[in-house]
């Protein structure tokens, strides 16, 4: 009898330890984590999720509709309804809305929570803040647009001087199409309009990786 009680207590202690470790993992995850019920009401959230949306503590998210964290709530519902909650949604990026109304870019994985019998009981949402990545992507788009529309000839080469990119203005003034220029060497531009030193200097600059 004493042995049975001891074993029971050991199992209880192991279970409590396991629950404590899982709770610690949940609360210290880098990714945001949200659980909702079948109505889309948040019933659990971790610290990362609260921080992501500028809430002080996770409990301040409890009771909110998860769609309220989307900048355009109707789009959130559209994403979910399109799959009828039957299949997981992976790598869904959307603009989230912080508590102060500012925007945060989110990458989400969403799956349905079910009982052993298959009954739907809610959703599990894993969230990652990708705002920095989105801002860099936008900067690259602006840079590319500036290069494409620049009123001067722009060539980009690798370290060996092989042309990897030319902008539209280059094609206009040289009469080379981008397909003809790519993979070639800037020496194709030697038309006799400039002396040999200009092309020697340009080639030396490309080899050195200078501007």
Give the structure's gist in a few sentences.
The chain has helices spanning 2-28, 47-52, 73-82, 131-149, 168-174, 178-181, 196-208, and strands at 32-36, 42-45, 89-97, 103-114, 120-129, 155-157, 163-166. The chain has seven helices and seven strands; from the N terminus they run αββααβββαββααα.
What does this structure look like?
The protein has helices at residues 2-28, 47-52, 73-82, 131-149, 168-174, 178-181, 196-208; strands at residues 32-36, 42-45, 89-97, 103-114, 120-129, 155-157, 163-166. It has 211 residues and is of the alpha+beta class. The protein has two domains: 31-131, PAS domain (Beta-Lactamase, 2-Layer Sandwich); 150-208, Beta-Lactamase. The strands form two sheets. Strands 2-1-5-4-3 form a five-stranded antiparallel beta sheet. The protein has a two-stranded antiparallel sheet with strand order 6-7. The model has no long low-confidence stretch (mean pLDDT 80).
List keywords for this structure.
211 residues; alpha+beta; Beta-Lactamase; 2 domains; five-stranded antiparallel beta sheet; two-stranded antiparallel ribbon; elongated
Any idea what the radius of gyration is? 29 Å
Distance between the termini: 84 Å
Query: What is the oligomer described by this structure?
Result: single chain
Q: Percent range for helical residues?
A: 40-55%
Structural class: alpha+beta
Categorize the overall geometry: elongated
User: What fold name goes in the CATH topology slot of the largest domain?
Assistant: Beta-Lactamase
Encode the helix/strand succession as letters.
HEEHHEEEHEEHHH
């Amino acid at each position: 009898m004493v042995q049975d009680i001891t074993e029971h207590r050991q199992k209880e202690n192991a279970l409590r330890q396991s629950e404590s470790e899982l709770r610690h993992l949940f609360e210290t995850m880098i990714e945001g984590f949200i659980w909702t019920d079948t109505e889309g009401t948040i019933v659990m959230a971790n610290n990362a999720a609260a921080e992501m949306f500028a809430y002080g503590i996770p409990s301040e998210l409890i009771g909110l509709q998860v769609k309220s964290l989307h900048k355009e709530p109707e789009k959130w519902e559209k994403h979910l309804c399109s799959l009828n909650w039957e299949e997981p949604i992976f790598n869904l990026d959307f603009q989230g809305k912080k508590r102060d109304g500012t925007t945060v870019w989110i990458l989400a994985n969403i799956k349905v929570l079910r009982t052993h019998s298959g009954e739907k009981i809610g959703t599990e949402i894993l969230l990652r803040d990708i705002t920095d990545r989105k801002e860099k992507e936008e900067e690259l788009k602006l840079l590319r647009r500036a290069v494409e529309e620049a009123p001067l000839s722009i060539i980009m080469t690798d370290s060996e001087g092989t042309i990897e990119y030319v902008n539209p203005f280059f094609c206009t003034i040289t009469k080379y199409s981008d397909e003809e220029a790519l993979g070639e060497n800037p020496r194709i531009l030697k038309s006799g309009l400039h002396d040999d030193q200009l092309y020697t200097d340009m080639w030396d600059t490309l080899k050195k990786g200078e501007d």
